[in-house]
Amino acid sequence: MLLRVDRLAAGRQRDVRIPADRLDSPALHRDWLVVRVLLGVAIMLGVSAVGIAFWLTLQGVPEPVLVWFRSVVVLGLTGGLGYFSFRAEQGWLWAYSRMRLFSFVFPAVTLVIAAVPGLYPFWMTVEQVAFAAIMLTVGAILSTRRMRTAYRRD
């Protein structure tokens, strides 16, 4: 089943795998652990956003559809990044390159949208900034020399 998902997500690079000896570094394993923890925090942040919107609705303060849409979509995208990290840690180049790209694209879009006055309630703007900070940290880890060296294409 994973190969079907990979085929959809990977495109032409679906068969390119990094040699296992390049990935067998304790420092690299620590980096991936930090990335997994950060993605876990981002997922918890996303679940919290859905929970806050639900709670506010129960309190008689219904949130706009845009809040619900953003919360669910970002939660789904973060889950997708979790899958990419799982596959990248196994040595799949496509997953690493997608993670590295999206860890900079998602926060850039998030920060631009968060900057639009009045689009989201204050609590969601704070959540967006926190999400962007987490994702930029993931991007910084994925862009270290150690990671780029391990995931170079030969």
TrEMBL record:
Which residue ranges run through the membrane? 33-55, 67-86, 98-116, 122-143
Keywords attached to this entry: Membrane, Transmembrane, Transmembrane helix
Q: Which domain of life is it from?
A: Bacteria
Q: What is this protein identified as?
A: EamA domain-containing protein
Q: From what organism does this protein derive?
A: Microbacterium gilvum
